[in-house]
């Protein structure tokens, strides 16, 4: 039995689609039921169980996994680390796991979870083993990439790759070879907003992951929702590392980007 541990967003639906197509038995635990549990339920065929369980109830989630004799676990979807700063009541196991960490960057937290699951005979599945079809081969998806724009893209991706070694974030916003914003705990959308404000529009967004990124967790993702809060002339281009970034709903992503005069480049 496979368990999909679903964070927010639409990408858990793509994982569900994979397991349905392969006729592999699975169930879903939605960590943020208010965000997408109804969408997941409506997407799935009858017979596939979807359980809502808040992310901070780690002991309860583990008990569900054991009761269902889970052999493999797939983590997919966004889990906003800002939630750890809210006044929520973490259960004992969550407190124990977090207190065992020297630092609380995303990779350390998720690695510790994986170790705990492995103690109970469960293997964490790599995201790219399930969703490799969401990688887009290198090339221009839409728009024009001038020499000047390509220089900004190369500059931004280089900065993003170097910063990723520090486990800070996955997104950098640049303009005229100047760094305007770097993603931290606030997330991609807020980083981009800050970059647009500081750069007065026409900025370049670059996204990547750590060079040694563990693909069991948190592969960077782009898609139509990435553009929801943007206006024309806010962003000139979005570029990403082709082997380290998922692109969901590619056709809609390209259409929305074209309407906003945004060039898309997979590098």
Kindly summarize this structure in a few lines.
This protein has 267 residues and is of the alpha/beta class.
List keywords for this structure.
267 residues, alpha/beta, Rossmann fold, Cytidine Deaminase, domain 2, 6-stranded mixed sheet, 5-stranded parallel sheet, 9 helices
Question: Given this structure, which CATH class of the largest domain is correct?
Answer: Alpha Beta
The profile of the biggest β sheet is: 6 strands, mixed
Q: What would you give as the CATH superfamily of the largest domain? A: LpxI C-terminal catalytic domain
* Shape category: globular
The helix/strand class is alpha/beta
Oligomeric state of shown chains: single chain
When the domains are counted, the total is: 2
Mean pLDDT: 89
How far apart, in Å, are the first and last alpha carbons? 36 Å
Describe the fold and architecture.
- The chain has 267 residues and is α/β, with parallel strands linked by helices.
- It folds into 2 domains: 2-125, Rossmann fold (3-Layer(aba) Sandwich), CATH 3.40.50; 134-266, 3-Layer(aba) Sandwich (Cytidine Deaminase, domain 2).
- Helix content is 37%, strand content 20%.
- It is built from 9 helices and 13 strands.
- It has helices at 11-21, 33-43, 58-67, 92-99, 106-119, 127-130, 147-164, 188-199, 250-259; strands at 2-6, 26-30, 50-52, 72-76, 123-124, 139-142, 171-175, 178-182, 203-207, 221-222, 235-240, 246-247, 263-266.
- The strands form 3 sheets. Strands 6-13-11-9-7-8 form a 6-stranded mixed sheet. It has a 5-stranded parallel sheet with strand order 3-2-1-4-5, with helices on both faces. The protein has a two-stranded parallel ribbon with strand order 10-12.
- Helix 1 (11-21) links the parallel strand 1 (2-6) and strand 2 (26-30).
- The longest helix has 18 residues, at 147-164.
- The chain is globular, with a radius of gyration of 19 Å.
């Amino acid at each position: 039995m496979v368990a999909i541990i679903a964070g927010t967003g639409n990408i858990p639906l793509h994982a569900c689609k994979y397991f349905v197509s392969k006729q592999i038995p699975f169930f879903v635990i939605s960590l943020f039921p208010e965000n997408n549990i109804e969408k997941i339920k409506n997407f799935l065929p009858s017979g596939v169980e979807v359980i809502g369980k808040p992310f901070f109830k780690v002991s309860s989630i583990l008990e569900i996994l054991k009761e269902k004799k889970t052999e493999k676990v797939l983590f997919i979807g966004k889990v906003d680390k800002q939630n750890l700063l809210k006044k929520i009541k973490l259960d004992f196991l969550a407190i124990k796991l977090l207190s065992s960490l020297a630092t609380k960057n995303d990779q350390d937290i998720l690695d510790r979870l994986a170790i705990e699951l492995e103690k109970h005979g469960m293997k964490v599945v790599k995201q790219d083993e399930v969703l490799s079809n969401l990688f887009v081969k290198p090339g221009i998806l839409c728009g024009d990439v001038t020499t000047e724009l390509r220089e900004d893209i190369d500059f931004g991706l280089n900065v993003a790759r170097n910063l990723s070694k520090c486990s800070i974030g996955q997104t950098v916003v640049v303009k005229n070879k100047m760094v305007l914003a770097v993603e931290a705990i606030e997330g991609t959308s807020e980083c981009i907003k800050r970059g647009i404000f500081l750069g007065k529009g026409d900025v370049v967004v670059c996204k990547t992951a750590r060079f040694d990124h563990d693909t069991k967790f948190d592969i960077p993702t782009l898609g139509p929702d990435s553009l929801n809060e943007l206006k024309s002339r806010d962003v000139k281009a979005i570029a990403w590392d082709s082997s380290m970034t998922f692109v969901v709903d590619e056709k809609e992503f390209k259409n929305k980007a074209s309407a906003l005069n945004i060039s898309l480049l997979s590098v």
